[in-house]
Amino acid sequence: MTDITFAWSALGGDPALLPRVTVVEREGALAARLPVREFARACVGACALAAAELGARRAALTEVPTVRVDDGAVATAFVSERHLLVDGRQLVNFAPLSRFWRTADGWVRTHANYPHHRQRLLRALGLPEDGASVESARAALAGRPALDVEESVTAAGGLAVALRTPREWAAHPQAVAVAERPLVERGRLDEAPARVLPPLAGAAPLLPAAGLRVLDLTRVTAGPVATRTLALLGADVLRLDAPHLPELADQHADTGFGKRSVTLDLAAGRAVFEDLLATADVVVTGYRPGALDRFGLSPEALAERRPGLVVVQLSAWGRYGPWQERRGFDSVVQVATGIAVTEGSERQPGALPAQALDHGTGYLLAAAVLRALTEQSEEGGSRLVRLALARTAAWLTGGTGAGGGRGAAPEAVATVAGDPYDGPGPWLAERDSALGRLRYARSPVAFAGGPVDWARPSGPLGADAARWV
User: Fold this and answer.
1) Which one is catalytic: 241, 330, 358, 422?
2) How far apart are CA 391 and CA 361, in angstroms?
3) Torsion 332-337-339-341 (CA) sign
4) DSSP string, 226-286
5) Which of 42-56, 92-106, 198-212 reaches the highest mean pLDDT?
6) Is pLDDT of 166 > 50?
7) Are 280 and 213 in contact (CB under 8 A)?
8) I want to staple 112 with a disulfide (CB 3.0 to 4.6 A). Which of 97, 165, 282, 344 is the partner?
């Protein structure tokens, strides 16, 4: 059930608030064989309702503001990377070696956007790093079995996933492990006292996350979409990137709205990080499970040093099962979980109309942070939230498993019919920035009295000082 009711339940939300939501339905938005439009609407709607709930609490409102979820705004935002223009230039979303390839017995999909992943892919294929082309890679892959490619590239630290049908994935040990987990994993780390959130001033717009400090240690799309959303809602978001593994400039331009960006070596700059952590409210990480533990960034270690923290961990495959340590991105998760076969066929795989697993998980992640903050104000405790792209995929494809919330009910939100989706125009905006003139998608998170745009545009990667505003 890919509806707002289920998503809100998975977040532990009060079902009595669901009638505050109105959906504007637009035929043609995010058209696909799978219910992508309903899925995307649910993720955004739950996020907006969580924001409205927290805003009402902090502003001492007598009722939670109404939420409006417009399919047009959602569809536009779910492909924000395709709509962003920098001085009229369209961004590069996939490198030449990030694509589907025919193999001796089927298909694989590779991801080689980052230089180090490209190097590892080529090394596993026995190709030179300089001079390798799509044609040479195609020839190297054509004679090898898909699973052999998957295993050899993975062993080299690269990304390649064999095409699987939904039935094949359902029988895989990783799929079994994923299905046993709730869509949103939520827990307490300690008995820290209740969080006292300062009341919000009466001035518009209503910013539920105003004054909150968020350390953003995420990459690519899902995590940055979540922290971009928290920035929209007023949080001071400081994104940290390692100087030796910088984010792709185009990727950062799309997801950097509202944030400040710092390059920081977590080993050499440990004292700087600890100073930031000492007054942080939320830490969001998007690296492979365990990858940051050696820096003292496990949830337990963070909460011990900063009681009352909300710690969020995002991964591709989850922190369980045989694939828990594997790298992954939306595009390859679609291939492994059978989505590519559902949207195409075994003979010619397809894809969702958006990087929907990334974007959807991002909005769920932001919603989970907002709900954790609301719960902390009543019950206290440092909080842990975990999400995984593969678990989100299970929800989209129908394998919802345990909701982890108060129990699903029939959809309680109101719907109104809008005009068919006829392009992104009404939901795009333009502004100047240090990067140049930006055309970008507005956020789809909307509630009465809430913000309509980010306080600041995206800026250059690593251009800001490592300190809170």
Assistant:
1) 358
2) 9
3) positive
4) HHHHHHHTT-EEEEEE-TTSPPPHHHHHHH-TT-EEEE--TTTTHHHHHHHHTT-SEEEE-
5) 42-56
6) yes
7) yes
8) 97
Q: How many Cβ atoms are within 10 Å of 213's Cβ, its own excluded?
A: 18
Q: Is the pLDDT of residue 317 over 80?
A: yes
Say whether 330 is catalytic.
no
Residues 367-386: pLDDT tens digits? 999 999 999 998 999 999 99
Burial 287-318 (b: 16+ CB within 10 A, else e): bbbeebeeeebbbeebbeebebbbbbbbbbbb
The amino acid at residue 263 is: T
User: Which of these ranges, 178-182, 365-369, 398-402, has the smallest mean pLDDT?
Assistant: 398-402
Supply the mean pLDDT for the chain.
Answer: 92
- Name the phi and psi angles at 97, rounded to 5: -90, 5
Residue 185 identity: E
Q: Which of 54, 7, 13, 78 is nearest to 449 (CA)?
A: 54
Residue 182's contacts (CB-CB under 8 Å, 6 or more residues apart) are 10, 401, 402, 403, 404, 405
Cα atoms in the 13 Å half-sphere on the side-chain side of 248: 17
26: left (phi over 0), alpha (psi -120 to 50) or beta: beta
Query: Which pLDDT does position 404 carry in this prediction?
Result: 40
For 332-435, where are the E strands, in sequence order? 383-388, 414-417, 428-433
**How many residues does this entry show for the chain?**
469
DSSP-derived secondary structure letter, 98? S
For 321-342, the pLDDT digits (tens) are: 999 989 888 999 999 999 999 9
pLDDT band at 52 (very low <50, low <70, confident <90, very high): very high
pLDDT of 406: 36
Q: Which two tokens stand for residue 310?
A: 């909300």
Separation CA 160–CA 162 (nearest Å):
7
State the pLDDT at residue 2. 55
455: CB partners within 8 A, 6+ apart = 231, 234, 258
The set of residues, in sequence order, having a beta carbon less than 8 Å from that of 354 and lying 6+ positions away, is 30, 36, 40, 75, 78, 79
Sequence letter at residue 146: A
The one-character DSSP state at 447 is: B
